[in-house]
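Form P-L/3: holo structure prediction, ligand pyridoxal-5'-phosphate.
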Amino acid sequence: EELYGVKRWGAGYFSIGENGNIKIAPNHRLPDVTIDMKEVVDEIIAEGIQLPAVIRFHDILRSQVEILNETFQQTIEQADYQGKYTGVFPIKVNQMREVVEEIIDAGEPYNYGLEAGSKPELMAVMAYNENPEALTILNGYKDEDYLTLALLGRNLQRKMIIVIEKYSELEMLIPLARKYNVEPMIGLRSKMMVKSTGKWSGSSGDRAKFGLSIAEILNIVERLRQEDMLHCAKLLHFHIGSQLSDIRKIKEAVSEGARLYAKLVQMGVPLEYLDIGGGLGIDYDGTSSTTDSSRNYSTDEYVADVVWGVKQVCDLEKVPHPNLVSESGRAITAHHSCVVTNIVGEVKPSSVDYDISPEDGEHILVSNMRELVSAEELHPQERYNDAASNKASAYEAFKFGILSLPEMAKIDTMYWQILSDIHADLDKDSYIIQELEELEDMLASQYLCNFSIFQSAADTWAIGQVLPIVPISRLEEQPQVRCSIADITCDSDGKLSKYIEGTEISDNIPMHTLKKGEEYHVGMFLTGAYQDVMGDMHNLFGRLTEVHVYCHDDEPGDFYIEEVVPGTSAEKVLETMQYNTDFMAKTVKKSIDRQVRKGSLAPREGVRWTDFYEKCLAGSTYLKV
Ligand code: PLP
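OUTPUT (holo model):
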């Protein structure tokens, strides 16, 4: 637990069982009821499902919805706050239908709503958020169709709030509202002055992409007053960025937003809701700090700062407490899904078994390296320096045609052997020479994982996000090797470069040696927010197979697989790139038939190869192991 930080990033959902397997306690109300992740994976494999797969624990999703809503409700009660909490889930964070359905279902007792940021998302939320008491918040840039769909929502008695991001949207909305004779509910998104920190700091400040300046807000208020539509202005919105790591920025934003809200109400704008956007962070790296992959606060603290912060400002300004809306996406979904994959190979710099025996007339550089192989008496730094300079000279000699290929192979093999020996003999406590410390990284293996980082962990590649990686079993055993995790894309960028090791972030990760005949499964956790839906088609790998896991209510600790959503087949990904797979199959068949006619393939073989090509088209894009 300590080594991989499972307890720290696990938020109570993940831990390590006595049998060395990852344990999951998906229901926050029943923390002692756990399921064994290895049993889940074994069942997936027994059902003939090929890894890699996304495993969704729907009970975690429900727990997160309950925790957020109940924390707001309890804090509101404790603070004697007069407004309600009516949160929304921003579907851009995970638009999977099953995820949205689960959130809507779990959120029903709290009138938990949805947020959309684009036209297709708006169409989805219209169909899935039918609760007339729950809000539908409409963000993002809008055109006439977007606004008209929102007006249709009002006709359906939904609480659809059109958040005006820029002045021109209001000028588009006014005539449409008149044309369809619908009274819209309007929100105003404020461009905040507080400067947030972290990867999404661009979401606030003067240069923010979205939102209205104070001058624009006042112009909009005036315009609405002229049109006799001021009563439609219901909500003030702000969002200063996702994954806010420092609670002080949240407090500042709440205080700025609440002050703006109060001043607008005092001017006669009949606002009822204050929407604080998203930003509630996740402790991905388990450090509980202000790193970009963590947060220095808990959900309780976040909620308390929002509720008490808004109350204090509104009491001072003598305006009624607004209903509070938040748009937490990451915090709702991150924990519920993980990617489970298998290791399909190991790339080791020092693993090649090559005969290094001396030969008559061999080059002096080869014999020099051989002497270093047995020079255990030398100081490790001196032995390392000599080996490194000998290798560099050998490279130069090879370029001038002085060394043969077998000689080069011997030098390389001996070099890595020397480095491994130096590393093995080093007294870890006296690691003082920096170059020797780097030996660990130089000798680290790469474990090849059957997945694509671009598909399943886009943020690790794009913004240096840390995601926890842990073997799902053998955790009672001390790991024996250090390695990095590389994916199966043909891109050297396709590897993870940051790993959790204890309370540190390391360049590589301790793992267990691979045993012949045993599958070693690794889980990448906390992938439920953004990672699940941002994947791209790099190398045409496409979506992973999804397995939806639920806990048995009547048999604590037991689970069942409710649904399996097959991953994208090779033909499906090819079709999204405009390939006609029927045409491809026919063309390949024709080429095979030609060889059959020529006699270079037997007819029976021709049929077999044709079937095989078609089977591969219908099959998985990932490696079959
Ligand atoms: N609301 C808006 C307007 C956003 O832009 C975002 C994401 O950046 C969110 C909500 C969700 O934020 P988070 O996932 O940090 O909760």
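COMMENT: The chain has a mean pLDDT of 93.
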